[in-house]
């Protein structure tokens, strides 16, 4: 098997219809996947990842591969592609992919930097040379009838695809519905290549803004001692106990900077006469104190009064916050130590007085009273701030934060007219926009949604997860501070811009549009684009518009007269956004649920986008989609949109693109691999024959193609999880479905793509079982037991997305909803399926034997039964008996039921030992059962199973992953 994996089939009526492209052939996927992971190191990310917060940005190598693969001819060698992508050391012209893989395999031996070990810098830092561009353009003109192909990204987001396109000096068009990333696109795709360096000018006006704003804000950040400038304050809320009227801080923990388990800086509360005061303490392992900073007043969202012990429940606390019945409290302060470094102190009356002055300033200034007063419109799905009383966007700031943001905006406005007078229109526009990005970026670490990072003793990002999570502890950043405020933020933004300028030097600017991707032809023209490369919205993964509103309202205050076309509405455009947003359909449910209405709305919008892309492409043009989603509904929508738009699916490729277990996406529907899915616009419109294909005829081919793809993927050496192997097999499955579309069942009713995807999931699960399960007789087990084992095999955890678990159940003949109540084999956890163990399912045998009342509804498995309906029930009963009554009783229990000769029981035991993590409680008990007298009785051969809790390979793999953390 080669380094590449592809499934491709170019539809054409004759051999000369259109030229096959590189992306429709073999690609160097392993090397590109390795580079994707290298780029994931947060210390060394591309400038477009830092310039301003945005969501779901893709790695540079994956974007480059998608672009180059979509415009270069098939037959382009892996070495040529990788060289153009700036992967590989100078002088190495052959076997680059093998070289990269070898470096990755031996990476644990390195003693220098990654760049030194690999022998070349990170690809995103390098642009193709003039000679490389000349050769590339010559080749592309031969492929595309004498012209360079135009690359279009219709849902450009953070801009990695169009930016990489202009680095190859290709005609580029970028469109984005949301104004917040559109501002970023302006900077990346227009100002960087067209206006160029503005470093001196940006610092000049940055310093003037800083001077003006700091003069208005100095009294809001008082210092306790000369030279100890406040850098950031850790804030919480004080509520009043309804029982004793004492002051209650909403504190989960008291750490300010936790260096290790018991060491670090903490704030120690002192409670007296119903009040609270704070002391900053330094704790070491040898500290002789009964104070535990890990024990705050909040536990499981409820609050315990430190004065009288009465509990205020979460719902009641939320109502107090919503009604404004609280006080902001600064309990800890990080300051700049003039002797070097920084230090911490407790919050005190001086800090509270500063908050009071900010509050008084707001009440006395009409403009401040209306600043950022747009209404918050956020769904409960991503934690509606209004639930906690934040009904206008100004409310996501405490008084001092709001005044700070206001004064910087005022200072900017005062400088704006001077900037317009001093520079030409384009330069002035660029300076004002980049300075605004600096101000907008400050929200990320200076709002009531911005948490305090106790591990670093430092303000953290607002969007650590894709929602507006309420923070009982938040950071109030001193924007006047040189170290952590406006100066530092703007320096980082300016540095990012100057890096972008260097990367785009000598390149033509892109065309940037802010509008609906379903209305593109009016801007770019029909048939004017050769290649569309897009990273579309992912169903319901990210509510982009709602998350952007906080940035939008501030940017509008700055830029409404600079980019009036971007800021035409009070908030961002949510009605045209292609996401499955159930909140838009609350109160509209009828025959259809709001979830179904949201799904249909998403399907309709995606269909409109792909139909519009079809119109913008010339006949024979290519569409490559970067898709990082594992939910069947999302793939169902994607495939129907492509098919109905008229595209012919020609290739799919899986690339490792994300770090496993990303914190922000943990438990989400996002896969760890990106699937590149490619389709072509036919040279001639397909004739409608009016015929349909029977699903029974398509299903066997679908399963066959899925199994073939899975085996090729498993043999390819690509670092794919078992889940991603299933997702990667969707591509060839969809091609079969699309080639036979429309597909109907025996009743003549149309079959949706999701049925083909379900068949593919089932087929790949069989391949995974064949490959990873050595247990003989597994296919003879009952459906429920097979579903339980396969779930552990594929997801390698007890929790998985509900839709995937349901689809897996269908594949083995089990409706998981029907069996849930009677078996208690699974339960719901935050909308996901969580597999249950014997402790959640089996009745207490001691109580049953003593004829005590035991709930069979809560615990449906009776361990005293002589026979069990499911193999998993027998095994769970055995583990329960062993743990409850010991090995002798377990021996009697097993022998009484003749389980030595029960193949179903023996097969279930060995299968579970193969798939369960070795530290899992069931695995540990089964290992105990298979030892001693019970083991001699059962005599189950487990010599093929690795019973090490953690092997050397796992440690090596973890060490490799740690390099990127």
From TrEMBL:
Superkingdom classification of source: Archaea
UniProt keywords, alphabetically: Plasmid
Residue span(s) of domain DUF1156: 27-74
InterPro entries (alphabetical): DUF1156, SAM-dependent_MTases_sf
Any single Pfam family the record assigns to this protein: DUF1156
Identification of the protein by name: DUF1156 domain-containing protein
Native source organism of the sequence: Halorubrum ezzemoulense (Halorubrum chaoviator)
């Amino acid at each position: 098997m080669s380094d590449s994996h592809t499934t491709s089939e170019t539809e054409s009526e004759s051999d000369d219809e259109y030229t096959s492209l590189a992306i429709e052939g073999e690609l160097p996927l392993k090397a590109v996947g390795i580079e994707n992971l290298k780029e994931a190191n947060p210390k060394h990310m591309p400038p477009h990842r830092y310039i301003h917060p945005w969501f779901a940005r893709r790695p540079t190598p994956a974007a480059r591969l998608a672009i180059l693969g979509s415009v270069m001819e098939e037959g382009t060698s892996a070495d040529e592609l990788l060289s153009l992508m700036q992967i590989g050391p100078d002088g190495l012209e052959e076997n680059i992919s093998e070289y990269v893989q070898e470096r990755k395999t031996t990476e644990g031996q390195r003693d220098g930097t990654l760049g030194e070990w690999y022998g070349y810098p990170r690809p995103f830092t390098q642009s193709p040379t003039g000679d490389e561009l000349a050769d590339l353009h010559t080749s592309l003109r031969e492929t595309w009838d004498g012209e360079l192909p135009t690359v279009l990204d219709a849902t450009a987001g953070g801009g990695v695809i169009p930016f990489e396109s202009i680095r190859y000096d290709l005609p580029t068009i970028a469109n984005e519905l949301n104004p917040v990333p559109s501002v970023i696109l302006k900077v990346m795709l227009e100002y960087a290549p067209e206006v160029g360096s503005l470093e001196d000018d940006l610092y000049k006006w940055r310093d003037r803004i800083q001077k003006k704003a700091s003069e208005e804000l100095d009294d809001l950040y008082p210092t306790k001692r000369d030279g100890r400038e406040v850098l950031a304050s850790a804030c919480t809320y004080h509520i009043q106990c309804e029982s004793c009227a004492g002051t209650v801080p909403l504190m989960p923990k008291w750490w300010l900077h936790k260096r290790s388990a018991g060491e670090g800086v903490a704030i120690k509360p002192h409670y007296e006469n119903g009040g609270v005061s704070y002391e900053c303490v330094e704790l070491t392992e040898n500290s002789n104190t009964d104070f535990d900073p890990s024990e705050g007043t909040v536990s499981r969202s409820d609050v315990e009064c430190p004065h009288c012990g009465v509990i205020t429940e979460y719902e009641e606390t939320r109502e107090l916050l919503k009604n404004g019945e609280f006080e902001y409290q600064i309990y800890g302060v990080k300051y700049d130590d003039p002797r070097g470094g920084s230090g911490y102190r407790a919050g005190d009356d001086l800090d509270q007085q500063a908050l009071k002055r900010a509050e008084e300033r707001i009440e006395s200034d009409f403009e401040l009273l209306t600043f950022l007063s747009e209404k918050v419109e956020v769904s409960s799905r991503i934690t509606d701030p209004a639930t906690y009383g934040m009904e206008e966007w100004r409310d996501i700031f405490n008084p001092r934060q709001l005044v700070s943001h206001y004064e910087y905006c005022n200072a900017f406005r005062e400088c704006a007219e001077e900037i317009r007078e001093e520079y030409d229109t384009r330069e002035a526009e660029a300076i004002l926009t980049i300075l605004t990005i600096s101000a907008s970026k400050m929200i990320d670490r200076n709002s009531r949604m911005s948490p305090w990072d106790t591990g670093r003793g430092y303000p953290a990002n607002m969007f650590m997860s894709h929602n507006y999570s309420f923070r009982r502890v938040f950071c109030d950043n001193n924007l006047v501070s040189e170290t952590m405020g406006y100066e530092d933020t703007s320096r980082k933004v300016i540095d990012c811009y100057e890096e972008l300028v260097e990367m785009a030097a000598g390149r033509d600017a892109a065309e940037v549009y802010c509008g609906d991707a379903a209305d593109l032809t009016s801007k770019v023209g029909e048939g004017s684009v050769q290649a569309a490369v897009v990273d579309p919205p992912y169903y319901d993964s990210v509510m982009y518009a709602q998350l952007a509103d906080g940035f939008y309202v501030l940017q509008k205050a700055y830029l409404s007269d600079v980019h009036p076309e971007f800021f035409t509405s009070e908030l961002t455009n949510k009605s045209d956004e292609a996401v499955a947003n159930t909140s838009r359909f609350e109160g509209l449910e009828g025959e259809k649920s709001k979830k179904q209405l949201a799904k249909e709305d998403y399907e309709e919008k995606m269909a409109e986008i792909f139909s519009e892309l079809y119109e913008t492409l010339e006949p024979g043009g290519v569409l490559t989609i970067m898709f990082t989603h594992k939910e069947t509904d999302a793939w169902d929508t994607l495939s129907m949109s492509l098919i109905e738009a008229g595209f012919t699916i020609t290739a799919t490729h899986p690339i490792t693109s994300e770090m496993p277990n990303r914190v922000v996406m943990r438990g989400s529907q996002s896969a760890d691999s990106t699937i590149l899915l490619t389709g072509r616009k036919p040279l001639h419109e397909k004739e409608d024959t009016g015929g349909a294909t029977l699903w029974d005829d398509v299903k066997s081919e679908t399963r066959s193609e899925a199994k073939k793809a899975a085996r090729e993927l498993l043999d390819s050496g690509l670092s794919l999880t078992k889940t991603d192997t299933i997702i990667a097999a969707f591509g060839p499955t969809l091609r079969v479905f699309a080639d036979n579309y429309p597909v109907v069942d025996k009743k003549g009713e149309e079959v949706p793509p999701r049925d083909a995807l379900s068949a593919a999931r089932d087929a790949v699960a069989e391949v995974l079982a064949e490959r990873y399960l050595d247990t003989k007789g597994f296919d003879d087990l009952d459906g429920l037991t097979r579903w339980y084992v396969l779930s552990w095999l594929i997801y390698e955890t007890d929790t998985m997305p509900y839709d995937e678990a349901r689809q897996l159940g269908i594949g083995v003949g089990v409706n998981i909803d029907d069996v849930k109540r009677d078996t208690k084999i699974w339960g719901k956890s935050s909308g996901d399926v969580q597999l249950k163990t014997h402790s959640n399912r089996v009745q207490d045998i001691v109580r049953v034997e003593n004829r005590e009342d035991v709930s069979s509804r809560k615990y449906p498995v009776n361990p005293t039964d002589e026979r069990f309906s499911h193999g998993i029930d027998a095994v769970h009963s055995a583990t329960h008996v062993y743990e409850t009554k010991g090995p002798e009783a377990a021996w009697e229990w097993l022998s009484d039921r003749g389980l030595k000769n029960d193949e179903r029981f023996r097969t279930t035991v060995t299968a579970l030992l193969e798939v369960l993590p070795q530290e899992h409680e069931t695995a540990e008990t089964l290992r105990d059962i298979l030892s001693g007298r019970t083991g001699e009785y059962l005599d189950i051969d487990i010599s093929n199973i690795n019973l090490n809790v953690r092997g050397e390979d796992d440690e090596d793999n973890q060490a490799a992953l740690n390099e990127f953390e």
